[in-house]
Amino acid sequence: xxxxxxxxxxxxxxxxxxxxxxxxxxxxxxxxxxxxxxxxxxxxxxxxxxxxxxxxxxxxxxxxxxxxxxxxxxxxxxxxxxxxxxxxxxxxxxxxxxxxxxxxxxxxxxxxxxxxxxxxxxxxxxxxxxxxxxxxxxxxxxxxxxxxxxxxxxxxxxxxxxxxxxxxxxxxxxxxxxxxxxxxxxxxxxxxxxxxxxxxxxxxxxxxxxxxxxxxxxxxxxxxxxxxxxxxxxxxxxxxxxxxxxxxxxxxxxxxxxxxxxxxxxxxxxxxxxxxxxxxxxxx
Length: 284
What we know:
Helix content is 75%, strand content 0%. With 284 residues, it is mostly helical.
């Protein structure tokens, strides 16, 4: 009884917080998505028109698929860069690994908007990257290969999320039993073979957790594409933001949000078919 009471006491604030600030807003958004009014209030008329408008417009669907592809690329590149970083911190950095990890995460403590604007300046026609490319003869003066577009969005998002992707991978690698690596070496495995057969499989839950840690927020990103994406780098989050802030069509914006949420849930369920949920939670 004491254990049950203690567990209830610990879980009640968290559950209330999730219900109040997560489930209730989602429920309100779901109600709005079935309204027909384009103003900022529900009119009480149930309709599927907002969803029909999405599925009838190929442009909306194209932007959603592009956003999904950008989010997948961002997650893959972020995990690919974060893994060797986390591996070095766990197996090579020694006592300084916590200090180095803190230094890696430190830039994330600054404003995200400032970091995005910094990349916008670097990638601009007169920015530092364009200047170096000009010295190498790859671009002409005043032009840039990376200014405005999906590639710029992916590059900026990867820079933003690599430190965060390293955290679950770091945690998963830190739990790898060193005696297993010693046993693999005693049996004649080379370092590469030991990594492929022991280290990487055991760290896979952390890799999957890092992937979704980056993919889900990147799918709904709108600030980065608004600043560095240009017309060709617009994402689905920009369409949602426009419906709420500019067009004042809250029902359509709510429908777009739920469509994007459904897309993220479907991809998450597909991935969890290959990795058990318990293992995924252990990698966080």
